Amino acid sequence: MQFTAIVLMVLLTLKLALLPARVAAYPAINKSRWLIASGTAILAIHFLLQLALDLRAKGITQSVMLNLAMFIPCSYLCSVAMILLQRQGRITKMEKLVGLVTWCVSMMLILIACAIDNKPLLSDSHEKHVAEIAASICYGLMLLYYFWRHVIYMKAMRTTLQNYYDWIMEDNQLRWMQFTILILVSVGLTVPLIIYGTSKLLVPYGLFFFASIFYFVDSFCSYVQSSVPRKLQEAEESERNVRRETVGNDKQKIDNDTMDRVGHLIEQWLQGGGYLQNGLKMPNAASEINIPQYLLSAWLRQKNMKYSEWITDLRISEAKRIFMEHPDWSNETVALRCGFTDRSYFQTIFKKRTGMTPAEFIQTTHKE
User: Which residues, other chains included, contact 99 with Cβ-Cβ below 8 Å and sequence gap of 6+?
Assistant: First the structure.
């Protein structure tokens, strides 16, 4: 199994290294690519050492030491890569340090145990066993910390996209990232349990491990070559502009009178059907309403709504009106008339927002 693992990790590393040149145009994606490639390369070295030294046959202690020495930096690199991807290249000092400190503390515990028991490094002892358990706990805490950060940033990504585009991003466009985060934590947390447990679990766990790593790398490569990173970057830049505008203007100016004026202008715009334009991004909507983007953002926050949800609900209301007046119109015609990108997306979002398909809505309303 080790030989197969070595070949797989080498191939995945090459796949990351040989991504199209246009990927390098996004610094955050390029950094993430090389961090993940470093992680898969570490795994290749890990399995090579297991094969060459036959550590599993020598005892549990030797396997645990190698796993901790290799899995901690590998998990750290992949976790940091995901954060860079989620935050467009930004990362805090704490997020940088947690993985490094975890690895240093874990290795220090093992070295201290070796110094205390006065036995060779690759030999079993009670002290090493205790040190490895303590290091495994540190590793688990590190994984939970990064899982917590990923969850926060996933939510922020969705909010950023929803406050810029006029469509609600479907879950499958970001689902791979959610699934990968769960995989990284699950694989990492179960490694010590598998090592200390029965050998019967090694084969099924190994298959799960390889499939998970393959899914992670393959999904990452597909994602970075899609249009989603560009859309996210555009939305992030818009969000930063809104923050700068908010800071640059006296917050006291956003009073009730200002919000009333904004509400009146928005109502006039809605009456003109401006929200029915396809591809209407938030800056364009603010420009058409003739207000700064930060005021539209403030008005939406006051209503506790995301931009995409607001526009979508308005369009769904218009679609309902059309279906009631023209039940013979096709879904595609109504979708295009109401500003939706295509019939499939319209039908999906109509069902989500109303609990009924367009056909069911027509049947229900005309029965009444």
Answer: 72, 73, 75, 76, 77, 79, 80, 142, 146
